[in-house]
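Review session, final week

We close the course with one last complete record, chosen because it touches almost every idea we covered. It is Odorant receptor, a protein from Nasonia vitripennis with 414 residues. Go through it on your own first, then we will talk.
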Amino acid sequence: MHQAIKIANGRIDADGIPNVEGLEKRVFPRTFLLLIVGGMWAPTTIKSRALFACYQLYTVFCFVSVCMLIITILIDNVLSDDKTMESLVEYAYMLIVFSNGLVRIINLVSRRDKILRLLQGNIMLDRWQSLRDDEELAIIAESKVSEKLVLKIWGSLILMNGISNAVNPIIHENPDNTLMFECYSPCDRSVSYCFWMTYSYQLFGYVIMSVAHLGVDCLIYNIIDQINSHYKIFLNRLLKLPARVREKARDDVAAALRYENNYIKECVADHHSIYKAAGELNDIFNELVFIQFISCISLLCTNIYFLSKQELFSPPFIAVFAFLCCALTQNFFFCLFGNKLSQTGSEIAGAIFGMDWQELQKETRRKLLFIMLLTSKGIALFNNAVVNLSPETFLKLVKVSYSAFNLLNQSTHK
C-alpha cells in the first residue's frame, strides 16, 4: 500500500482518533474562530477553570444580548399604537430573523459534545487524514478551497448587510433618533446618552446574531463538504483495488489475496464511517435546518414586500436588498451542498459496476455488491416532509415565497 501522507497535526491515539484538544485549530479554523468570537464555542485549549468560567459568562452575555433584542421588539409591538399591517409584518420579520440566530446559538452550545464526537470520531479519523496518492491530495485541496470560498461569499454578504443596517442611524439625517430596529427603549432617545446606549446594545446583539448565522451555517456547509470529500476518497480507493491486487500478485499470489481481504475490509469501514458521519450530522442539525427552511418562506416574502415599498436605491432599499441576498444565498448553499453529496453517492454504484470486479475473489465481490446496495439508497441529509436539499427545493422556496408575497400585498391593499 502506498505510503500515507499525513495532513493533520496533533496527537493520535492507537485507534487513529485525534486528541480533542485544539481540534478546532486543525479542522475549519476560520469557522471556529467566528464561533469562539460569537461566544458559541469554548475553545478546547482552555484548561484553566477561571478562564473557562469567564468564557461561559461571555456566552451568557451574548445570549442575553440577542434575547434583549427579541424582548424589546415584542414590548414595542405591544405598546405601539400603530398596528397597521405593514408594521405588524415588520415586527414579524425582525422576530423571525433574531429568533433564528437565537436558535443557532442554543443548538451549537447545547450540542457541543456531539459536534466534538462527530469531528473527532469521523471527520478527523486517521483513515481520512492519511492520504495515499496525488488524487486524494487534490480532493482535500479542492475541499479547502471550497471552505474558504463559501466563508468569503457568505461573510461578505452578511458584512454588507450588517454595515448597511448599522450605519443608517448615524450617517444619515436622523432627527427622531431612530435606531437600527424599532424596539422599546426605557429612556428618552432624544437624549444623546440614551440613544447611544440603546444603539450600542442593539449593535452588539445584531453582531452576535450575524456571527451565529455565519458561523453555524459555515460549520454545516464545511462538514457536508468534508463528508463529500471522504466519499470521493473512498471511491478513489475502491476503484484502484483491482490494479493494486494485480500488482501484488506478480510477486506473491498468497500475499495478494491477504492484501485484497484487508483492503476491502478497509473500504467497507470507510463506507460505514461516511454514513455514520452523515447520521450524526443529521442528529445534530436536523431541527435547525428544518426551522431555517420553514422561516425562509416568511423571510423571503416579507423582504420582497418591504423592497416593493421602498424608493429605489434609497438607504432602506439597499438594507432590505442586502438582507434578501443573504437569505437567498443561505438557502442556496444548503441546497447546493446537500445536492453535491447526493450526486457523489449516486456515482458509487455505477463506478463499482464499471471496475474490473471479475478479477476479485467471490467474497470481495459480495462485499462490493453490499456497498452498491447501500449506496443506491443515497445519503438523505435533513430530509423530511418539508426539507429536501436539492436545487429543485430552492426554486420551490422562491416560488412559494413570491406567492406568499402576492397574498400579503393583496391583503394590505384591501
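Two points worth writing down before the exam:
Strands lie at 5-6, 130-131.
Confidence is low (pLDDT under 50) at residues 1-10.
Good luck, everyone.
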